[in-house]
Specification:
The complex is a heterodimer of chains A (115) and B (115).
Chain A: E1 3-5, E2 10-14, E3 19-21, E4 24-26, E5 32-39, E6 46-52, E7 60-61, E8 64-69, E9 74-79, E10 88-96, E11 103-105, E12 109-114
Parallel strand pairs in A: 2-12
Antiparallel strand pairs in A: 1-4, 3-9, 5-6, 5-10, 7-8, 8-9, 10-11, 10-12
Chain B: E1 4-7, E2 10-13, E3 19-25, E4 31-37, E5 43-49, E6 56-57, E7 64-66, E8 76-78, E9 87-94, E10 105-106, E11 110-114
Parallel strand pairs in B: 2-11
Antiparallel strand pairs in B: 1-3, 3-8, 4-5, 4-9, 5-6, 7-8, 9-10, 9-11
The chains are: A mainly beta (115), B mainly beta (115).
């Protein structure tokens, strides 16, 4: 069975600085998708970024980028130029490609942004 | 604007009572999901539905039931058999359940408290 592990329950970053959130996963599949979701205090979960396992190039979305290391089964999220609005829970998630009905989530990392 | 509506936002029930959480989407998505969120445990899948009149159990289906009579609606009933029902419940949808890269779209959640 696939598992997703986020080893940092909490992280903090100074406004305008860069922070990296860690995520590792375990799977025997070769084709899958990885996601980072953000849950702000309003509790509305939103997609931050996604990565296709067959693509070697790391995904980027404005200030958000990932470091995808398939062999190491690592999928970290880098937030550049951190803003107060980035404060939230961040969840790493895994989804199989064949029959991908089930998304598996990590326990989450709470990010604090200091002004 | 399209989205997912969960109601109510807060729900209080006495132990032994069944309660139904509403989830409606106007995104024309085929697949819908119910997740339970507890502190430190991320999101766990309760039930999912790929098409109307069809649904499957997730990882923690015991004590819950669902129906999918309309594409837009996927209500969740928390029965008295659920031993620890107090939690935050999130409804989600995706374009196609079997498409791995289709991200989840979430509602705002329902906080259920059972005393």
């Amino acid at each position: 069975a696939q598992t997703v592990t986020q080893s940092q329950p909490e992280m903090s970053v100074q406004e305008a600085e860069t922070v990296t959130l860690s995520c590792t996963y375990d799977t025997s599949e070769s084709d899958y998708y990885l996601f980072w979701y953000k849950q702000p205090p309003s509790r509305q979960m939103i997609l931050v970024i996604r990565q296709e396992a067959y693509k070697q190039q790391n995904a980027t979305e404005n200030r958000f980028s990932v470091n995808f290391q398939k062999a190491a089964k690592s999928f970290s999220l880098k937030i550049s130029d951190s803003q107060l609005g980035d404060a939230a829970m961040y969840f790493c998630a895994y989804r199989s490609v064949p029959g991908g009905f089930k998304t598996i989530f990590g326990a989450g990392t709470r990010l604090f942004v200091k002004a | 604007d399209g989205g997912i509506t969960q109601s109510p936002k807060y729900l209080f029930r006495k132990e032994g009572q069944n309660v139904t959480l509403s989830c409606e989407q106007n995104l024309n998505h085929d697949a819908m999901y119910w997740y339970r969120q507890d502190p430190g445990q991320g999101l766990r899948l309760i039930y999912y539905s790929q098409i109307v009149n069809d649904f499957q159990k997730g990882d923690i289906a015991e004590g819950y039931s669902v129906s999918r009579e309309k594409k837009e609606s996927f209500p969740l009933t928390v029965t008295s058999a659920q031993k620890n029902p107090t939690a935050f419940y999130l409804c989600a949808s995706s374009v196609r359940g079997g498409s791995g890269n289709s991200p989840l779209h979430f509602g705002n959640g329902t906080r259920l408290t059972v005393t």
